[in-house]
Amino acid sequence: MTRIARQPRPPVPAHLAPLIGSWELWLTAAGKAPKTRTVYLDAVRWLAGSLPAGVDWPDACTDLDHVRRFLAELTEAGYSVSYRNNIGRSLQQWFAWLAAEEDLTSPFDGRRLKVPPPPKLGTVKRPVLTTEQLAALIHHAERERGFTGRRDAAILRLYASTGCRLAELVVDLDVLDLRGRELTVVGKGSKIRTVRFDASTALALDRYLRERARHPHGARLTALWLGVHRATAMTSWGLANVIERRGEALGMTINPHLFRHTFAHRWLDAGGAEGDLMELMGWDSPQMLRHYGASARGARARRAYDRINPLGGI
């Protein structure tokens, strides 16, 4: 599970920055989600900082080699196909806006610059965490006393037991029902749903909440997850850092999204209903079910073989 570390972004040249600022205003006015805006803007700023000195945006639109070279550098750096396609799609959105705003032609128009399409859903079997890896991560945090250990253990257990997106766990205290073992989250498209967690997660959350009550800023902050000392709530990036740091301490390279794939795998592998999984994961499309369920499909088929037995006792 090799993961390329996020590279430092080169600074954006002053002459390229104003239009990026204008696009940021447009994305906000268009109602794009904060995470979408972050991804789009990171890609275009990265490109801007990678352009040769003196190149302006009209030059980047007309000289296709500038964008081709940037995408080729991502390949050489070892970034995955899916990541490179995310960057490509972000740049397509940028150049489409720029072309319309400045009466230019986007380098992505027609077939002049083709970004390889992402893998078809369901064709790639995503890695999942083993039971031993999950236990090691959680127990590593639980062995620590104090605020950090109990907070991290609660984060890991809640993430693993709900199948939520990481950003969905950035919530306030009032949406947590500890006794009912339920959490209300806001998913993609601002859709609200309620997810369930197990009794062990409830205990971990209860231990953390007792420590949180002693936090110097806990009484006046409404966020569930707090930093160790600062008077700020944790972001999804902070939650991801907890997971990655715990993995590194055990010699594991952990992509936080593995937890979501692992939840889907374990649910289907245990015979859980696909419709229930779609509800819990916040999916509208069965394509996502096929995408996330690929890892468990072979194991389910082999168990079904033993149950059905095509020879029928002959």
Your description of this structure?
With 314 residues, the chain is mostly helical. The protein folds into two domains: 17-102, Tyrosine recombinase, N-terminal domain (DNA polymerase, domain 1); 131-297, Orthogonal Bundle (hpI Integrase, Chain A). It is built from twelve helices and three strands; from the N terminus they run αααααααβββααααα. The protein has helices at 17-29, 34-50, 57-62, 64-76, 81-102, 131-142, 147-162, 199-213, 236-249, 258-269, 274-281, 286-308; strands at 176-177, 182-186, 192-196. It has a three-stranded antiparallel beta sheet with strand order 1-2-3. β1 (176-177) and β2 form a beta hairpin. The chain is globular. Residues 111-124 have low confidence and may be disordered.
Notable traits:
3 strands; 12 helices; 2 domains; 3-stranded antiparallel sheet; DNA polymerase, domain 1; single chain; mainly alpha; 314 residues
Strand proportion: under 5%
Strand order of the largest sheet: 1-2-3
Q: Do you know the CATH topology of the largest domain?
A: hpI Integrase, Chain A
Provide the CATH top-level class of the largest domain: Mainly Alpha
Global morphology: globular
Beginning-to-end CA distance, first to last residue = 44 Å
Q: Supply the CATH superfamily name of the largest domain.
A: Intergrase catalytic core
Which radius of gyration do the C-alpha atoms yield? 23 Å
> Which range best describes the helical content: under 10%, 10-25%, 25-40%, 40-55%, 55-70% or over 70%?
40-55%
Kindly state the number of beta strands: 3
What's the tally of helices? 12
CATH architectural label of the largest domain: Orthogonal Bundle
Low-confidence stretches: 111-124
